[in-house]
Amino acid sequence: MASGARLTIRTRGTDPRSAALLADAHALGLTQVTAIDVSDLVFFDSYVSPAQQVAIEGVLVDPLLQTASWQPADAGVDTELLPGVTDPTAQAVVLALAIVGLAPIGIATGKHFAVTTTEGTPDEGTLATLARSLLSNSVIERWAPTPIAPSFVDTQATAESSVDHVAIVGLDDEALQALNRERGLSLDLAELHTVAAFYRTAGREPTDVELETLAQTWSEHCAHKTFRARIVTTDGTEIAPLLQQLRDCTTEIAAPFVRSAFVGNAGIVSNTPGVTLAIKAETHNHPSAIEPFGGANTGVGGVIRAVMGTAHDPIAVTDILCFGPTDLPADELPAGVLHPRLIESGVIAGIADYGNKIGLPTVAGAVLYDPGYTANPLVYAGCLGVADDAPALPGPQPGDLVVVIGGRTGRDGLRGATFSSATMDATTGDVAGASVQIGDPIVEKLVIDAMRECLGLYHAVTDCGAGGLSSAVGEMAEGVGAEVDVALAPLKYPGLRPWEVWLSEAQERMVFAVPPANWAAMQAMCARHGVEAVSLGTFTGDGVLRVRAGALEVLELDTHFLHDGRPQRVMTAEMPAPYRGDPALPECADLAATLLALLAHPDIRSKEAVIRRYDHEIRGATVVRPLVGEHHDGHADGVVLARPTDTNGVALGIGVNPWYGVTDPERMAHAVIDEAIRNVVAVGADPDLVSLLDNFSWGDPRRASTLGALVAAVEGCCAAARAHSAPFVSGKDSLNNEYLGRDGQRHAVPPTLVITALAHVPDAGRTITPDLKAAGNVLLLVGATAPEFAGSHFALIAATPAPAVVPAPDSQAPARYRRLHAAMNRDLVRSCHDLSEGGLAVALAEMAIAGDLGATITHLPHPHLTTAWFAESTGRLLVEVDPADVDAFVTAMDGDAFVLGTVQAVATLVIDGVEIALADLRQAWKGAR
Amino acid sequence: MSTPPAIVLAAPGTNRDHDVAHALELAGAAPRIVLLAELLADPGLLRDAQLLVLAGGFSYADALGAGRMWSLRLAHGAGDELNAFVAAGKPVIGICNGFQALTSMGILPGALAHNASGHFQCEWVKLAVPASRCVWTADIDPIECPIAHGEGRYVHPDPAALAAAGLVALTYADHNPNGSVAEIAGVCDASGVVLGLMPHPENHVIARQHPRHGRGTHRGLGLALFEQGVRHARQVG
């Protein structure tokens, strides 16, 4: 650094980042901090002359917005990205300097934080606490008291191209387990025996590359061992493998619109001739726990690639987020865990960054809070894609080239699949250093653009996700075989060993099987969009996967063993026995106060602050957006997307309720499927054209009761899907969402099943939203109300006597939704809102807030007041109907419609004589966040 | 009526190029999306066009500041042709990231800073249309359309002078979403042919795109702005 230079760029006036940091510091209990002033740093690895300084400032500094300084730094904290972490800013600086004709120079970037406390200058301890807990994330950054000595990427590094053989053949059980731990393989003993036996027969030991490849391919993350396991209950009943049950259910429903279910990267359906839709949702839980921004960021990028991997053009993103309580006192935070507030802000920023920059609307979603998510937050991201007259892809053919396009390969995300399959402990953040990374949405955007023009040039495509090339090439080569040379892969920086290239989870890469005759055309299309494309080898036809690094052979594996050699797991399930008899009736002393408390509950209250961070308008296709109503601030039930040139559209709805799952996972599954379908029906979708995704986040299934809850949930899923004739087209499970604290206690997430419903909207110009439309209209309830309070939000905030029951499935719901849809098509419905958390009273309040209108409810659907107001029985919707249409609507519903009251042009909601000002409802729901 | 050829310039990371191309089609132009690299390889492409759009998005991931890299490449690779295009009186519009690039090049006055909120915001705004030199906003009614940006706070040392010179083309009418000085949402150059604005009129070109479409209180199609630009392109072409 002696000969280098340091440029500090400071925002004129107040830097908005500074205010956010100060608020976070106070939330973490560092109340003595009075200011954190952030500025950006650019480091140069060699001397910068005064003339060069002027030229560089001309490029990097906008004098209207920023000031620049080449002077030594003030006291404070400096941070910089760790070498090897993608640094787009440094890359841009290099490019900018080249444009203005400056000689190449090594660049690194960082941030400087000047900190002030009530005492003036902070002591070293305060600075270190701040730096560790707020200003830097040790997974991707390092910090030092100012001035930091920057590190520059070593562009001259070399690595010995070597391969090690790992002794496994003669090992006893103890030694196998030790090897498993030492290499982080996350395999069980039966699997280790199978690997050892395979190599005993082969008469050799595995290479390190082979062992890592097997561990990745056989990981829970990639192989879904639990969902394919043979399960026996504690009373000896044999259960069909869970994945089999879901697939059988889809086969039985035999929906004509399903094009592809449970194969490939995403489910594919067609609701209109010539147009197919691809849909997928995934989780990125463990990475988001240790590096919230990067984890969520790459989670979005990954699920978008899953849709790209079906040769569909991505058109929308969804996200469902589960966090610990954001007001958790700092001293109650488990060891080694980031504060929920920081996880929440990082995850939301990460999703916004990827979705906004790649140019996709982030639409449907939910945000839930529960102490069970404190150490193990859940981040679900989904993606919808479309293709017009997509050509059928035959799969890799012998002689096809193995082509990789997109981002370069670095040490990013090594062993992500095995990492996500392990239970986290307090040291995970330290040891998992390389297992997450920051995404580059612009690169992925350019890959999408290039792929749009490459249609028809390739035989197969898949994305590079967990397991990197080992997974992508390994899966494509199944049965065909391939030979690739990892030395041909473009690298971010030199020095990677062959196994690192093969297993790297560097983002934004896609793998194709390209006939040699089309290769030049494909290269040209990629070059036009500035996307790097290389051929690493060929698909051979002999069924064997071979990997070389130049002349060095590093892997030779029969793809049949790789994909089918894993022994089936045998697991034990202890089935739950939830109470389903007559419930006790909870009493509520103050209905109005309880309603306001429910509206203010973190799960129910307005999510506007989150939703507005995401672009939901881009592509001009968002017809029903997440925020609707007179002031654009009410929550929509589902969203509707329709290309500006199309008449029809698609609706997306989400169902999730972990609190039901704690008590009765089977009913929970039924309830959340009903909720997801209710959400799309409410906005005008056709209940006969609904496809479903299932995404399970569960604890450790090797615990019999945890597996039992999973089995019950899958059974509930299948029953509900059959009842609604709504097939599952894809799904994913994330198990082992548990955390072993330094306190020795296990922390597991509540059983969290997220259902995504995708449905056809026949006329996107005639959609329905939940905001009340006009005074004088009549409000009706469809569906039956019962005292079902277990897992309800009423029960979360008020004393509820035992026994309680989780809302039961409503066998009438499918017919009800069809009738409601027919009524909508006859233009009999002015607004519609689904009843979910908080029941009827909350739904009424939400409609009133969204429409900025009052209502008077004179008839309640149940004689027991608490039940009428707050029970969460499924299958119910609130409907607003013009008074002239009420008879026609009730007839259309076959009498299944109960008049509650009318919409009023006053700022009051009156329920059964209890008056609450609209302003109070709004204040409670929107409140201060 | 002629359909003037239009270029929608897309830099690596711009992402509303297709949206604005659709708006131009509806407004009666014949748009073609041209990649920045293609324009830099052949700046003469501009001579065949009568209207130019710099589309919104995140060119170069907003590294070094929104629009900065785009403006550097454009100014160094096709600056002369771009200046000739403007000098010929052909209409140019920079939306969001395109606006940021135009201020960064100095073609439009002022600069765009981080939103006062400190983060990205997506919401609908109502735009008033003050009397100005701008050919794009001449005689149009107030527009309603979304914003979607993190760096959209308009900064200028002397907004009164801007207004007096007739360069303030659009202002935020009911609320100022990002802290822009004098509620400025869009400015034009002294000739009036170059408009830069942060909001996205290209996302309100058909009625059902408006959030209050179902309430019957939707108004202010953004399409009007593009129709004015295309009308002007026909006149100069």
Structural account:
The complex is a heterodimer of chains A (929) and B (237). Among the domains of chain A are: 5-145, no CATH class; 173-223, no CATH class. Chain A is 33% helix and 24% strand. Chain A contains 30 helices and 40 strands. Chain A has a seven-stranded mixed sheet. In chain A, strands 35-37-34-38-36-39-40 form a seven-stranded mixed sheet, with helices on both faces. Chain A has a six-stranded antiparallel sheet with strand order 3-1-2-5-4-6, covered by helices on one side. In chain A, helix 23 runs parallel beside helix 24 (704-724). Mean pLDDT of chain A is 92; it is low at 424-435. Chain B is globular. Chain B has 237 residues and is of the alpha/beta class. Chain B contains six helices and eleven strands. In chain B, strands 2-1-3-4-11-10-9-6-7 form a nine-stranded mixed sheet, with helices on both faces. Chain B has a two-stranded antiparallel ribbon with strand order 5-8. The chains are: A alpha+beta (929), B alpha/beta (237). Chains A and B meet through helix 1, helix 3, helix 12, helix 15 and strand 25 of A and helix 1, helix 3 and strand 6 of B.
What number of domains of chain B?
Answer: 1
For the biggest sheet of chain B, the summary is: 9 strands, mixed
Query: Can you give the mean pLDDT of chain B?
Result: 96
Helix content of chain A: 25-40%
> Could you state the oligomeric state of the chains shown?
heterodimer
Shape of chain A: globular
**Average pLDDT number of chain A:** 92
Order of helices and strands of chain B: EHEHEHEHEEEEHEEEH
Number of helices of chain B: 6
Portion of residues within helices of chain B:
25-40%
Indicate the CATH topology of chain B. Rossmann fold
- Biggest interface between protein chains, with counts per chain? A-B, 63 and 57 residues
User: Which regions of chain A contain 5 or more consecutive residues with pLDDT less than 50?
Assistant: 424-435
Strand content of chain A: 15-25%
Q: Which structural class do the helices and strands of chain B define?
A: alpha/beta
What percentage of the residues of chain B does DSSP assign to strands (E)?
Answer: 15-25%
Please give the largest β-sheet of chain A.
7 strands, mixed
CATH class of chain B: Alpha Beta
- Roughly how many Å apart are the termini of chain B? 12 Å
